[in-house]
Amino acid sequence: LNTTTSNQTNFVQNQMLTYLILLKGNDNALIIQLKPALPVNYLFCFKFGSVPVINSTVNDFDYCKIFCSNELKVDGTDTFYQFFLTMSEVNKFNGYVGFGLRELLSSESAVFCPGGVNNATEKYTKSPPVLSDPKSQISFSTTITVRTILTGCYYLGSDGNWLSDGVEIVEAGTNTSCTQCQAYHLTEFAGGFIVLPEPINFEYAFANASIEKNPLIYATVITITGLYFILALVCYYFDRRDRMKTGIC
After folding, report:
1. Cβ distance 103 to 112 under 8 Å?
2. Which of 58, 98, 108, 238 is positioned for an S-S bond with 51, CB 3.0–4.6 A?
3. In which band, very low, low, confident or very high, does the pLDDT at 7 lie, cut at 50, 70 and 90?
């Protein structure tokens, strides 16, 4: 995620950094993993069909959750926060879904994270904290990497189609290398797992495409291109020599 706060007028209308994901395909569970470079507490909100909106007059979201640093999950060498929606919660939704997040203020962390008066460890769906002066209060102290995963459990029906009724994903046993399924009927079933591709940020790519920032890439491309033209000339020479040898005996 680009966590710069240069365009602060957007934070007045929506007090979060927002992001859209396109869901397509079969019945799936949705996993959103947020990997901050530093252990920071966050407010996270999610909405089907558009990005969530939080401000002093509007609360438009489907789920909100407080992520506290003691909730960071560990998977191998990765450490991240995880938002998980089951297959029944996603309910075969196809289209755009959005999420937003912002860092909690120290005063908010004292209230909502362990040691405060309200430890928000479950989905926080009613009244997320709202800032009084978002233009001056919103800041991001660290970079955040996002990974979105679709995973599902299915069984082969008598008609030869993969079905999902009576089968669910178990969050506790599901990670980036394993999907744990729970079935309510006796049948053979299988799991599917897709890591959604990250959209290309062309504005960021072109802004950092100078030779000074990418000398090795430019040197590699120029070298390969030069070798291509040299080999093309060599091949042309041998082709021309072969044509001169062609005749009728």
Report:
1. no
2. 98
3. very low
